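Module 6 notes. Inverse folding takes a fixed backbone as the condition and produces residue identities as the prediction. Think of it as a translation problem where the source language is geometry and the target language is the twenty amino acids. Below is one complete input and output pair. Work through it position by position during the lab.
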């Protein structure tokens, strides 16, 4: 088991999850309530880059650690759910602790 790659996946999942929360709870209200669409443009771009980076690191980590397709699908679904990164972090830390 490559624990370093899993720890890297945990870090990017946290960053991606925080960017999703900022997009939903800061940038979108700024756009729709206060009429500042630039906030969504900027935060959406940052979140998009982080999500694509997450997908790449997930793919790389899954190859190194032989993750099942079901496990990968769970992680991708958690990445698009607000606060899903918290559950994902727990799952990945449990995986590290078991091995």
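Target side of the pair, the amino acids:
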């Amino acid at each position: 088991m490559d624990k370093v790659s899993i720890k890297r996946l945990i870090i990017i999942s946290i960053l991606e999850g925080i960017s999703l929360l900022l997009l939903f709870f800061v940038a979108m209200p700024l756009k729709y309530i206060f009429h500042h669409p630039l906030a969504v443009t900027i935060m959406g771009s940052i979140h998009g880059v982080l999500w694509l980076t997450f997908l790449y690191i997930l793919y790389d980590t899954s190859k190194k650690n032989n993750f099942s397709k079901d496990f990968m699908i769970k992680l991708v679904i958690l990445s698009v759910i607000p606060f899903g990164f918290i559950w994902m972090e727990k799952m990945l830390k449990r995986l590290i602790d078991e091995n």
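Reference fact for the lab report: The chain has a mean pLDDT of 96.
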